């Protein structure tokens, strides 16, 4: 993936629990932490040390289809950090994962993997719209972005 | 059966500095002024203070305040987390300390130069806790963006409108227009101004956001028995609660089955369980209003209306004086001052003393809430 103008945006401050998510993202995979106990297997997000359902510390990272629907969205306007103010108004969306509806990933709806955060006209944003994950590089870290399933 | 906090303690003194976009004095000086004003209001000597409570975000500490005002030996001190969610918990912790004999005179305070000081979200070096990696890179930078996300979903799901949010902003502004201490005292708000205001984070505009204020406030808590001998009419702490719901994620509460029922619901269940009266008996409410959508959400959470009915509740002047539930009678965070909700506590005390600038006739019960959307707290006060 090519580096892009999004390099001036904030990159994630990664903690121990979250590190595998970003590692998989760098391989172009959207994976969510799940309990590894066979009779449990509950998905959880954000990642954490143990399962809130069965308290097991064994976990695995389950690959998601990368499909979802827009649950809500905002259009931030200044005052913002400079790199974001330049793009404002841009969109920030919450995507309800098709594989796990109670998990909603924050992201941005874009026209393509390395397109800027304001590359989709705001009137095209709609709650319920079907989207598909893509990945872009921000400050050397692969982050999920989302494109409309039907353009 | 454990000892009950019900009516065991009372707020007997309140104090505040002027509110402004910029005050010349330091947060420490402002804190001392507010604390001493509250003690003077109560008629209690600073040397009698033996307990303190504030917010973890408060930058003046007990050591500095205690030695500056001339407090005695202090035997209880506590700080509550989660920003504005901690406001009412400062009083709750002191009530618990006084009721159980850990201390006898408690002071809660908040001093903040949020008007002339930095905006916390601009600090990229000190990142917010764990959830930040999942939201900030995508441009959800400010509390306004995080709440706007829930607000749009709320409007979508329940048909709430910008007019409902305007009703909230207007009620607060109208009360501020009656309150000479309020930042917006001489600044009326119209629907035209609201509907044409610049966006901050769509669907929230400028007037959906609280003020940015310099100022400090404090209050004094003692036992109900001691309160009877104080200078002012006692305002009893009838019920208190904190709320951190199961699987809650703070202001980015995006990862559970129902992101739209937040900490208010949890705090409310505990608050009403211990009270002798219910939502229908509340004469006036001071509801945390960093952003207008927190009001409909809180109205639902604290049981003034059903799920999804918070927007409609604001219609027909319900939040105004004479309406079904007058709120934020000093102007609130939206129009009096934004000092992390402490002005809502003091305004609740003023209402029950009968000294508010927008007095609800014969008010004898008041709900005060802390920030909804973060781990929160609430108080029921009665005269």
From TrEMBL, chain A:
Domain ChsH2 rubredoxin-like zinc ribbon: 22-58
Domain ChsH2 C-terminal OB-fold: 61-135
Pfam families (alphabetical): OB_ChsH2_C, zf-ChsH2
Gene3D superfamilies: 6.10.30.10
Protein name: OB-fold domain-containing protein
Organism this protein belongs to: Streptomyces himalayensis subsp. himalayensis
TrEMBL record, chain B:
InterPro entries linked: Thiolase (IPR002155), Thiolase-like (IPR016039), Thiolase_C_2 (IPR055140)
Superkingdom per UniProt: Bacteria
MF-aspect GO terms: acyltransferase activity, transferring groups other than amino-acyl groups
Pfam families: Thiolase_C_1 (PF22691)
Residue ranges occupied by any Thiolase C-terminal domain in the UniProt entry: 257-375
NCBIfam families: PRK07855.1
PANTHER family: ACETYL-COA C-ACETYLTRANSFERASE, NON-SPECIFIC LIPID-TRANSFER PROTEIN-LIKE 2
Identification of the protein by name: Lipid-transfer protein
Organism: Streptomyces himalayensis subsp. himalayensis
Species lineage: Bacteria, Bacillati, Actinomycetota, Actinomycetes, Kitasatosporales
């Amino acid at each position: 993936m090519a580096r892009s103008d999004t390099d001036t945006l904030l990159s994630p401050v990664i903690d121990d629990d979250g590190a595998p998510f970003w590692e998989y993202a760098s391989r172009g995979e959207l994976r969510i932490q799940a309990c590894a106990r066979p009779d449990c297997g509950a998905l959880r997000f954000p990642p954490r040390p143990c399962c809130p359902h069965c308290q097991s510390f064994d976990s695995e990272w389950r690959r998601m289809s990368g499909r979802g629907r827009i649950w809500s969205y905002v259009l931030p306007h200044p005052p913002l950090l400079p790199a974001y103010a330049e793009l404002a108004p841009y969109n920030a969306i919450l995507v309800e994962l098709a594989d796990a509806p109670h998990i909603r990933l924050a992201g941005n709806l874009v026209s393509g993997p390395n397109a800027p955060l304001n590359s989709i006209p705001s009137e095209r944003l709609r709650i319920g719209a079907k989207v598909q994950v893509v990945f872009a590089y921000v400050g050397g870290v692969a982050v999920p972005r989302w494109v409309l399933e039907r353009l | 059966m454990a000892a009950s906090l019900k009516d065991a303690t009372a707020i007997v003194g309140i104090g505040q500095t002027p509110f402004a976009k910029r005050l010349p004095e330091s947060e420490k000086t402002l804190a001392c002024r507010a604390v001493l004003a509250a003690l003077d209001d109560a008629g209690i000597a600073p040397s009698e203070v033996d307990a303190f409570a504030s917010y973890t975000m408060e930058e003046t500490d007990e050591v500095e305040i205690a030695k500056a005002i001339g407090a005695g030996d202090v035997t209880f001190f506590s700080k509550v987390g989660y920003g504005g969610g901690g406001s009412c918990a400062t009083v709750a912790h002191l009530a618990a300390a006084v009721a159980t004999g850990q201390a006898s005179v408690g002071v809660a305070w908040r001093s903040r130069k949020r008007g002339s000081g930095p905006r916390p979200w601009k600090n990229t070096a000190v990142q917010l806790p764990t959830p930040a990696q999942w939201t900030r890179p995508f441009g959800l930078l400010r509390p306004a963006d995080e709440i706007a996300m829930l607000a749009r979903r709320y409007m979508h799901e329940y048909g709430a409108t910008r007019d409902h949010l305007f009703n909230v902003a207007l009620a607060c502004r109208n009360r501020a227009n009656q309150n000479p201490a309020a930042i917006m005292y001489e600044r009326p708000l119209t629907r035209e101004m609201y509907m044409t205001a610049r966006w901050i984070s769509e669907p929230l505009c400028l007037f959906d956001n609280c003020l940015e204020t310099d100022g400090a406030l404090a209050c004094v808590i003692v036992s109900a028995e001691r309160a009877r001998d104080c200078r002012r009419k006692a305002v009893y702490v009838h019920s208190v609660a904190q709320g951190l719901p199961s699987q809650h994620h703070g202001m980015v509460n995006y990862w559970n089955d129902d992101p739209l029922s937040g900490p208010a619901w949890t705090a409310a269940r505990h608050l009403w369980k211990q009270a002798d009266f219910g939502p229908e008996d509340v004469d006036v409410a001071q509801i945390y209003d960093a952003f207008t959508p927190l009001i409909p959400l809180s109205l639902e959470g604290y049981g003034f209306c059903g799920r999804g009915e918070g927007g409609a509740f604001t219609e027909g002047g319900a939040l105004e004086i004479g309406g079904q539930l007058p709120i934020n009678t000093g102007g609130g965070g939206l129009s009096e001052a934004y000092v992390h909700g402490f002005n809502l506590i003091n305004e609740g005390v003023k209402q029950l003393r009968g000294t508010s600038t927008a007095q609800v006739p014969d008010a004898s019960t008041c709900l005060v809430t802390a920030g909804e959307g973060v781990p929160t707290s609430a108080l029921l006060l009665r005269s």
